[in-house]
Design a protein that fits this description.
Number of strands: 7
CATH class of one domain: Alpha Beta
Shape: globular
Distance between the termini: 28 Å
Low-confidence stretches: 1-31
CATH architecture of one domain: Alpha-Beta Complex
Number of helices: 13
Oligomer: single chain
Structural class: alpha/beta
Strand content: 5-15%
Order of helices and strands: HEEHEEHEHHHHHHHHHEEH
CATH topology of one domain: Conserved hypothetical protein from pyrococcus furiosus pfu- 392566-001, ParB domain
Radius of gyration: 23 Å
Mean pLDDT: 75
Strand order of the largest sheet: 1-5-3-4-2
Largest sheet: 5 strands, mixed
Helix content: 40-55%
């Protein structure tokens, strides 16, 4: 496998060597940024992100009407049959499409909503697999991909390069267990994957469900997680007993103080945000206490810390 050592260093490093000679309409011939008509730009059918928030697109569109596009999109020139195989949402005829978005599809969509005729762009000469790699990198860095989208993109890269999980992890600057755990999500039933893609269950729920054998019981528990708003902790407990309601143990345990409903609601809200079990231990008398949050490996720890807004770059 031919390893690309540039991947993982950021989009700017990947732009080195980009072919910028494909356009002649730029007002500044020496400029690396070219104004490209929107009708000439199609969408990448291998774009890892499949779901776009219409409200956020509208907000971005309104912003573009006021200030324009401040950051150029990255596109590559299409050849031959590639033009006919454009994404059905490209809104351009195959005859007019000359380029494909590598990075910045959200900006292109918003620009069309804003009624713009052209966008600033950098033109590169990557092959399709390289284009997917750059698009994946950009989205991972911005944490825009959902778990199913990210896992699908990982699988496509492995197939395109004949890479092992360990080699893919090296390419993306991640540890192997993180890549392996994400790819396991694709072994879940299609109905469960749909719930996860639509945000009706979290990554934490998916991890709990993966501890169960495939089948009707797992699917039923997934549906319960959504319909009853089960916390990740509840899902883990039920998964341990095969998806059913945990049975009371005959041996008596010391009674613990009942959890305040408001505190329990806060714990469940936190679990939905972090996708991991959260425990709030609060003393009703002093109002003091602790918050604990479970993580499953180093990659999961970094994911949680990033959601908290913690700078994880300690190099």
């Amino acid at each position: 496998m031919n390893k690309n050592t540039v991947l993982g260093k950021g989009l700017s490093a990947l732009l080195q060597g980009a072919d910028l000679s494909g356009m002649t309409s730029s007002p500044d011939k020496d400029s690396s940024v070219h104004m490209v008509p929107l009708e000439a730009i199609g969408f990448n059918p291998d774009q890892p992100r499949k779901i776009f928030d219409n409200n956020k697109l509208s907000e971005l569109s309104a912003s573009l009407k006021e200030v324009g596009i401040l950051q150029p999109v990255l596109i590559r020139q299409l050849h031959g049959a590639e033009k006919a195989a454009q994404h059905p949402e490209s809104q351009s005829s195959p005859e007019s499409v000359a380029f494909c978005v590598v990075a910045g599809e959200r900006r292109v969509r918003a620009a069309r909503l804003a009624g713009l005729q052209e966008v600033p762009a950098l033109i590169c000469s990557y092959e399709q697999t390289e284009a997917l790699k750059v698009a994946l990198l950009e989205n991972i860095q911005r944490e825009d991909l959902g778990p199913i989208e990210e896992a699908e993109a990982y699988r496509k890269l492995m197939k395109a390069y004949g890479a092992t999980q360990e080699e893919l992890a090296t390419m993306l600057g991640k540890n192997r267990s993180s890549v392996a755990n994400l790819l396991r999500i694709l072994t879940l039933e299609p109905e469960i994957q749909t719930l996860l893609a639509e945000g009706k269950i979290t990554r934490g729920h998916a991890k709990a469900l993966l501890s169960m054998p495939a089948g009707a019981a797992r699917l039923q528990l997934a549906k319960l997680c959504h319909s009853r708003g089960l916390s990740v902790r509840d899902a883990e407990t039920r998964a341990q007993v095969g998806g059913g309601k945990p049975q009371r143990k005959t041996r008596r345990k010391p009674r613990s103080a009942p959890v305040d409903p408001a505190v329990r609601a806060l714990m469940e809200n936190a679990e939905r945000l972090y996708g991991s079990p959260v425990m709030i231990d609060r003393n009703p008398a002093t109002k003091k206490g602790t918050i604990s949050l479970r993580f499953y490996d180093d990659a999961d720890l970094l994911r949680v810390l990033k959601i908290m807004g913690v700078d994880t770059d300690i190099s």
